[in-house]
Design a protein that fits this description.
By secondary structure, the chain is mainly α. It has one domain. The chain has helices spanning 2-30, 35-49, 64-94, 100-114, and strands spanning 54-58, 119-123. A two-stranded antiparallel ribbon has the order 1-2. It is globular and about 40 Å long.
Amino acid sequence: MKTLGNLIWLLFGGLVTAIEYFAASIPLFISIIGIPFGIQTIKLGMLCIWPFGTEIRVKPGNPGCISTIMNIFWFLIGGIWICLTHVLFGVILCITIIGIPFGKQHFKMASLALMPFGRQIIQS
């Protein structure tokens, strides 16, 4: 079922969203300051490719202070808007019974989009 859900996800916007995240990471990688943020957009893009069967966890042994500061910068620069977009799509998809699994994936992406630093994506 996870594979079928991921294939449907890719066909109906997941691949386009992942490409948008990857394209957004290119200008971030050009500047030295933007490299950590580019890595996080790559992380979000990878989650957009195959969201069913993945889990987001806090990295073990992660330096909390640096992650917190970077998450604050991320939030102010645009993380809140990325998060709100995923929440909006999640709410719209959850209106129908068929869309609930896909809405749940958007809610998962919203949590990562809000605070990506210090998080890891694990395939289950």
